[in-house]
Amino acid sequence: MRAEDLADLARDLGRGCRDEESRDRAVVDAETARLQQRLAADVPGARVVKAFNTMAAQVIALDRDELARHHVSVFLCSDDATAKAVVRGLAEELGFVGVDSGELERSQLVEALADFVRFQIAGMGLSAVATLSLHRLGDS
Q1: For residue 38, is pLDDT > 90?
Q2: Which residues 6+ apart lie within 8 Å of 88 measured at CB?
């Protein structure tokens, strides 16, 4: 990645499911959902890619072979196809499956998906290494 490329891995931890009360009151904040667009505007010339935000750091730290075996998906949002391809290549090099999730404005949907996944993981009593994998059936 070059200096003008920016991969946004951040999550608004205030919306996480730290306890049952916050899990029950979870709300998607429209202002928070636009943080990625504001980041792009605040860093002129930056090519922002939203990625790796649907999983815990413990998942990212797993061995490449284990990640590849489970087909762990990394959802990528960006207004710049070239920058998105760079981050997708990095994700796949680490053992993840890169999933093009559209333009940067769609990152709010990815954030909501991440919240849902975390709520499910917590509700099922699973460890932080539980995550989401997207598979297309019927491919040979």
Answers
A1: no
A2: 74, 76, 98, 100
